[in-house]
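does this look right to u?? pyridoxal-5'-phosphate version
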Amino acid sequence: MFERPIEMVDLKSQYARIKEDVDRGIQKCIDQATFINGPSVREFQVNLEEYLGVKHVIPCANGTDALQIAMMALDLEEGDEVIVPAFTYVATAEVIALLKLSPVMVDVDLETMNITPELIEKAITPRTKAIVPVHLFGQCCDMEGIMQVAIKYGLKVIEDNAQAIGADYQFSSGVKAKSGTIGTIGCTSFFPSKNLGCYGDGGAIMTQEDALAEKMRIIANHGQVVRYYHDFVGVNSRLDSIQAAILDVKLRYLDEYCTARWEVAMAYNKAFGDIDALLVPQTASFTTHVFHQYTMCVQGGQRAALQEHLQKLGIPSMIYYPVPLYKQKAFSQYCAADFSLPNTEILCEEVMSLPIHTEMKPDMLAYIIDGVRSFFIKK
Ligand SMILES: *Cc1c(COP(=O)(O)O)cnc(C)c1O
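got this back:
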């Protein structure tokens, strides 16, 4: 056993390094009693706009709300089809169903585990109104190709950027843009374990369009333009002042955090390169990877045995995600019983994520690497 407990993500050690600044930010909100819509919310919003190079950031209560508010703002009608990857976290499709829209699930690429313009285009029908690319595990989808498909068919694009904040997308022209700022709207989550996480729930919506930003601000605030005058039915979705103060501190470290994760991932990639049964994560040429998760494929039906082997060594591992969206009971009405997508099926059988975070020490990393290798290479 390793001398310290190993966790998928180490938020305690991360806090220890920024404790003074974070504590000061929290205390200030309490001293000022500015718990809702305090100055820290506005400060964080402006700093995030600048970091992302996006015109508007609208803070909200969580990443799922961000997706819902985005879809409410796009004037979609009951039954309209929205394309989503079948291999993703449930939140992406959940809000589509909640708004009485119809989620259409498409397969993902085996190497990047993301949807592609080709797979999207095959699923488009006259009812299709929007696409939700999910930048899964920390790398961008092919946004240039996706935007071309969107323009060709007149579709809106909502980027689910909950796992990739900080990633850079590079267009074929060489121009770069931050993930979440390329589509019609971008959505992100500040859930504690996300790459930019707060100490509770939080989320944000991004857009370059003034009118859309205004509309989403109003929707997130009970549909009120002037206080107590409600133009349409909205929701109550706010980022707490205290959470904003924490995020404003952590935003300063985001690039450093992304690098730290990337270094862990590169060490894993290097250490597992010679193991035939392990397919290490591939990064597409047009994006950086911020490794929200380090997710590899374990071939030959050995995943459960490897997990068990690691567990005995005190090394946690997780399966993100074990079940395709179309096999979830909650979504059965949208898919035929025999609906199946080949790559999604393979990934659900083979993916396995290892611990990755900003505070990984070399001795712990070496222990995890040895633990994985010892399963395949018997001494
Ligand atoms: C975390 C996550 C969400 C939802 O964010 P919450 O803040 O938990 O509501 C949505 N989509 C993806 C891909 C996520 O990873």
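The two ends are 18 Å apart (CA to CA). idk if thats expected tbh
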